Structure formats: structure tokens, C-alpha cells
Amino acid sequence: MTWSIVARDPATGHFAVAVATRFFAVGGLCPNGAGGVGALATQALINPLYGPRGIAMLDRGFPAQTVVDALTGADEGRDSRQLHVIDREGRNAAWTGPSCVDWCGHLVDENVSVAGNMLAGPRVVADTLATYKASAGKPLAERLILALEAGEAAGGDKRGKQSAALRIWSTESYPILDMRVDDHADPLVELRRLWGVAHERFIPFSQAFATTADPAGIHDRAKLDAMIESYARRQAG
After folding, report:
1. What is the mean pLDDT of the chain?
2. Ranges 22-31, 57-66, 141-150, 223-232: which has the least confidence
3. Is the same domain home to 103 and 211?
């Protein structure tokens, strides 16, 4: 009922998950990650425990394949689960249970994997991956949206559309971008709209967030306003 892309940008080290489905609020439980650690997507007959347990294992340095093997191996419902994981080294691993609803499957490549179930056909996954790879050099969020749009154009979830999400992690446990469309007639159109709105103030404002290296962040309002204005001028040309 879902297809998703899990990726690491080797240029920045950022991790990301983007997902679309004919199901409510997919962003709540499917995408999981942490900066400097890794990311994963749990889907099909979702097991929400995979998220925190998988990220904890990645944080302890376990490779992606070990995480997939451990989570699915301990789960009696694994035949109906789908999971794909990327670790801090950019290694991807995936599991598609034999009882997942057709079409179902996954593709694993360097620093990226795509997985889906209950899809219109294999082109959904193949075109999502191909578009992501072909858009190298663009901002990570833009690449992910383009990739999902390509999957949708190939048929997407065979039941229709309802929700989508995109999350990106930089250096911290919290995401630097977290966009969710919980219930919408055309969630990818709405996700792209939110990406545009994020550039109005949120993207430059997020550069001021507190981090482990700078626990206070930038909190001077004059500096914040100057950052936002400078960003707006650059965006305008």
C-alpha cells in the first residue's frame, strides 16, 4: 500500500526518507532516522517497533543488513512486513516479506533504496529510483519529491492516493525538514506546495536551530531576520 525511498546524500551526510501511500498519515510511523546515524522505512503491515529499535541499533554501529536481519528475524509477522534501512556508511539493505501484497518488491543501490507494496507494478519502484539517481546535484528534498512524482506517474499505489511525507536529518536526532500530508486528494502536489512554503521562512530559520555543537543556536532576533531576508534575496535571484 506504500512506496518509499530511503537515502543518504554523500555530499552532506544527510539522511532522508520520502514516502507516499493510499493510507492515512504515513509520516507518523513509516519514516524514521537520526542525524549521523541512519534512516529506515517500515511499511506494508507496518511494525512501529522497527523504527526506534532499528535507529538504536544503527546508533550503536550495526550495519544496515544486520539491522534488517535482526528486526525481521525476531518478528513472527515478518512475512507481511517491508523494511529498508541505510546506515551511517551509506550501506542499504531491504526486506520484502513473501506475504506482502503484489506488486511488491525493492531495489537497492549505492546510498539509496526504494521499496513498495500493493503497487501498480514494478515500474513504480524502478522509475522512483531512476529519477532520484538522474537528479543528482539538485537539493535532496527536491530529488526525493521528483522521485516520488515519477513513481506516481508510473501508477503509484494501485488503490489510489491519500498521504505522503518527507523527512531529512542533518547532524542531530531531530529532522531539519519534516513535511507531512496526512489526508489529501493529491498528496504529492500538496507535498511540493509545502516544499515551496518552507522556503519562505522555515528553511533559513532552521539554520539557527540549536545543535549539539552549538546548544544555544542563533537566538538574536535581528540576526534571525537578517538571515531570512538574505535567503529571500538569494532565492529571488
Report:
1. 95
2. 223-232
3. no
Using the structure block, give the residue that is written with the C-alpha cell 525493492. 106
Q: How many domains does the chain have?
A: 2
CATH number at residue 128: 3.60.20.10
Which residue, among 34, 14, 2, has the nearest Cα to 187 in the 3D structure?
2
| pTM exceeds cut of 0.90 | yes
pLDDT of residue 231: 84
Do 77 and 157 fall within a single domain? yes
* pLDDT exceeds cutoff 70 at 58: yes
Cell output for 186:
493529491
pLDDT score of 235 more than 90: no
Provide the domain limits for residue 180.
2-198
Residue type, position 132, single letter:
Y
**Looking at the structure, do residues 171 and 211 belong to the same domain, yes or no?**
no
